[in-house]
Backbone:
């Protein structure tokens, strides 16, 4: 078993490197785990049937629960405890996944949960990786039943019958992945997490085990050479996938997952028989010890540790931070093994066909306790994304009602303000929305604004075209595809005195324009963006409004290896934001618009900047608190009156000072 333990170590190392952003196709380590599990459990079940004449299902399930549940439940409980203290705005979502993981359905919970626009900007779900454990547990629950039925039908040729059934089901799973595969750049949640699409790997392992049980291993020199050669080809294939096939590549579902499963099966077959690969995998005692003792708990703990040990908390980044994360994850895994897993293994009674009532009761109690704790944490910790969704819904309803009845959409309208008090309309993306939506009647009254119309929208982009960041591509966004017409209609209906434009983070991507990919900053891309800016400013100023353009500050999100590809690619490039701001200033000059340097909010004077981030996710302001300092800062400078003093509005002040 030393070589098998070596394979476990390789698999978990690939997954850890993948989650650290060091190995783009390291997800294949999960598929190797799946194939290995399918091979081992099928081999054990067929051996049990051969020796006892039957398969003891309840005994099998009891042993699997004893092996998997304690460490998994401890990981869920520990992660939720740490998340409650360190990430209270995100732990509610983690708790829902933790509850589902305790019930072996975390993969389907994530499929059904969907996602908020703002989910991509907050901390990742620290328990998201438990989807694979749920898939494995569902296979453990269902496959033995199918295997027992197939073996009974096959009678003397039971193993061949099991192999045939497993092969048909594996093919069906591969076809399901193909049929459910999304278009390039689209959401892969359903196909990535679905048991039906991921079962191909454990079922391929089951085919291997059944074929070996039916006819044995090759004994001739030629047969052994073929098996060894296939193992070498399989290992080379896995290395190629791990180093080149990104998890968003549609090739995964167009045969890539099946190829990974077959390559893993070839490696497993070569590893369990004497040969060069077996010797290499079993050569290091450390490697085999990690695979035997720590691979499972290391898989459980590595992702929560990566999520919680951020650059801000540790003061580290890059390789130093990754080394710390790996060291802490190994330490947590070792504790799990020493205090929980090993004592349970060492104290396990002789395997029995059926688990005792006491064991069943303890397992049920532990699962219930963790599931209930997850529900409590989820209910008591609403996520920031959830609060924003609720705020968006309530704000959208008010705007809809307020459009035909201005008295309900503006603070000062209720008192019939003087005609000299201006009206303001804000246009842009979610950043503009985040500092505008929280405006209150009292704030507008203090600023001397009669009416504020918020036309900023989540995901709104001037260039409606497919975008690219690094190797990732996404289709054209449909948040506001008709923005020129929509903005022109609102300008015509509202006739604002001031129109504010705030765009930025969405505009710095490469785009597919005129039939080809155009890099941001290229002459072709600049031409399209200049045209879009000219159109936007022409629309906003078309009815005589004073047009104000906000520059786009640098993102504050660090490159921590966890962020979406957008963060560590286009959005993390200060040079791109510098170029965008140059284009914004040039467009403002062409149209006689005013420019407000938004980064002066936290850098009021050169060299005097706030050290701590002022945007909770690096881009967005907190919509519950941002309106007084941020919107106040903007409107003090946007309204046609005497300019403010050099000190401006202090971020975090209870209300802006109006001059």
Residues:
């Amino acid at each position: 078993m030393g070589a098998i333990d070596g394979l476990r170590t390789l698999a978990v190392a690939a997954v850890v490197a993948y989650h650290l952003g060091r190995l783009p196709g390291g997800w294949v380590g999960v598929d190797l785990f799946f194939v290995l599990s399918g091979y081992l459990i099928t081999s054990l079940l067929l051996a049990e049937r051969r020796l006892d004449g039957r398969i003891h299902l309840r005994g099998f399930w009891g042993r699997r629960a004893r092996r998997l549940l304690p460490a998994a439940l401890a990981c869920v409980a520990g992660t939720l405890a740490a998340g409650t203290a360190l990430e209270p705005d995100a732990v509610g979502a983690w708790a829902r996944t933790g509850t589902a993981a305790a019930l072996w359905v975390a993969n389907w919970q994530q499929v059904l949960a969907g996602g908020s626009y703002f989910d991509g900007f907050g901390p990742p779900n620290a328990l998201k990786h438990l989807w694979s454990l749920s898939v494995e547990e569902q296979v453990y629950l269902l496959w033995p039943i199918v295997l027992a039925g197939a073996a009974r039908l096959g009678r003397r040729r039971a193993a061949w019958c099991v192999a045939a059934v497993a092969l048909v089901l594996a093919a069906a799973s591969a076809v399901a992945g193909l049929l459910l595969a999304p278009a390039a750049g689209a959401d892969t949640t359903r196909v990535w997490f679905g048991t039906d699409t991921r079962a191909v790997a454990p079922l391929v392992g089951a085919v291997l085990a059944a074929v070996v049980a039916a006819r044995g291993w090759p004994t001739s020199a030629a047969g052994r050479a073929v098996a060894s050669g296939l193992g070498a080809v399989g290992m080379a294939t896995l290395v190629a996938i791990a180093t080149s096939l990104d998890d968003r590549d549609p090739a995964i579902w167009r045969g890539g997952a099946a190829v990974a499963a077959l390559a893993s099966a070839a490696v497993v077959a070569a590893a369990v028989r004497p040969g060069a690969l077996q010797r290499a995998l079993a050569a290091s005692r450390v490697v085999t010890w990690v695979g035997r003792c720590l691979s499972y708990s290391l898989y459980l703990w590595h992702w929560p540790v990566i999520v919680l040990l951020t650059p801000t908390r540790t003061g580290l980044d890059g390789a130093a931070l990754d080394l710390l994360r790996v060291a802490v994850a190994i330490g947590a895994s070792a504790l799990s093994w020493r205090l929980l897993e090993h004592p349970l293994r060492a104290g396990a009674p002789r395997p029995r066909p059926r688990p005792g009532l006491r064991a069943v009761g303890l397992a049920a109690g532990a699962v219930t306790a963790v599931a209930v704790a997850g529900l409590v944490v989820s209910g008591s910790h609403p996520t920031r994304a959830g609060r924003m969704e609720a705020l968006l819904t309530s704000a959208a309803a008010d705007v809809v009602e307020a459009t035909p009845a201005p008295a309900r959409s503006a603070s000062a309208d209720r008192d019939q303000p003087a005609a000299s008090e201006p009206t303001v309309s804000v246009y842009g993306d979610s950043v503009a929305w985040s500092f505008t939506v929280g405006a209150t009647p009292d704030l507008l009254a203090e600023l001397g604004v009669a009416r504020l119309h918020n036309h900023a929208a989540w995901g709104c982009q001037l260039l409606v075209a497919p975008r690219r960041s690094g190797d990732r591509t996404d289709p054209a966004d449909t948040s506001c595809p008709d923005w020129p017409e929509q903005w022109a209609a609102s300008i015509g209906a509202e006739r604002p005195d001031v129109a504010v434009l705030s765009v930025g983070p969405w505009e710095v991507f490469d785009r597919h324009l005129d039939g080809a990919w155009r890099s941001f900053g290229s002459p072709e891309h600049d031409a399209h963006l200049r045209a879009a800016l000219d159109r936007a400013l022409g629309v906003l100023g078309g009815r005589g409004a004073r047009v104000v353009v906000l520059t786009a500050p640098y993102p504050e999100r660090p490159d921590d290896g966890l962020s979406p590809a957008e963060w560590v690619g286009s959005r993390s490039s200060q040079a791109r934001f510098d170029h965008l701001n140059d284009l914004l200033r040039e467009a403002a000059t062409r149209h006689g618009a005013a420019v407000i340097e938004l980064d002066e909010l936290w850098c009021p004077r050169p060299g005097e900047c706030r050290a701590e981030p002022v945007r909770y996710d690096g881009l967005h302001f907190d919509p519950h608190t941002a309106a007084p300092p941020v919107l106040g800062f903007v409107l003090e400078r946007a309204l046609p009156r005497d300019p403010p003093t050099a000190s401006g509005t202090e971020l975090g002040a209870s209300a802006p000072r109006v001059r």
Summary: The longest strand covers residues 423-428. The chain has two domains: 2-380, 384-638. Strands lie at 423-428, 451-454, 467-469, 472-474, 498-502, 510-513, 516-518, 546-550, 594-596. The radius of gyration is 29 Å.
